Amino acid sequence: MAKTEKNQLDNKAFTEDCHKVLMAMSDALYAIGGKWKLMIIIAMARGNKRFTEIQRQVTGISARVLSSELKELEMNGFIIKKVENGYPVTIEYELLPYSHTLEEVVGAMTKWGMQHREKIKAEMASGKSEK
C-alpha cells in the first residue's frame, strides 16, 4: 500500500514537472517562435535598423509579414520602434537590452543548425538518405 502511494506521489511530481517544462516551452515559442522572429533579431543585432535593411537581410520575408513580426517583437519587449519627425519621416527599430537574453539560445540553435546541415550533407553524399 505504501509503495502505491509513493508511486502516485512520484507520478504527480513527474506530471507537475512535465507541465512546468511544457508551459515554459510554450511561453518561449509564443515570444520567439515561428520562421522569422529570431532571424529578424539576428539581422538587427548585425546593425540593420531600418525596415528595408531588415527585409533585405532576412531573405524571403514579405513586407506584410515583417511588419507583423516587428509589432509582435515590440509587444514582447525585444525591440522598440523609433520615429523621427522631419522630412522625410525616419523610422528605425532598435533592440532593447532584453533581446540580449536570447544570445545563448541563438548560439545554441546556430551551432545545432550547422551540425544538422553537415549531417544531412554527409548522409546525402553517402546515399544514406535514400532509405
TrEMBL record:
Q: Which residues form the HTH hxlR-type domain?
A: 18-121
Any GO molecular function? DNA binding
- Which key words tag this protein in UniProt? DNA-binding, Transcription, Transcription regulation
- Report the InterPro entries cross-referenced here: HTH_HxlR (IPR002577), WH-like_DNA-bd_sf (IPR036388), WH_DNA-bd_sf (IPR036390)
Pfam families per UniProt: HxlR
Instruction: List where the protein spans the membrane.
Output: none
Q: Name the domain of life this protein comes from.
A: Bacteria
PROSITE patterns in the record, alphabetically? HTH_HXLR
Name the UniProt record assigns to this protein: Transcriptional regulator, HxlR family
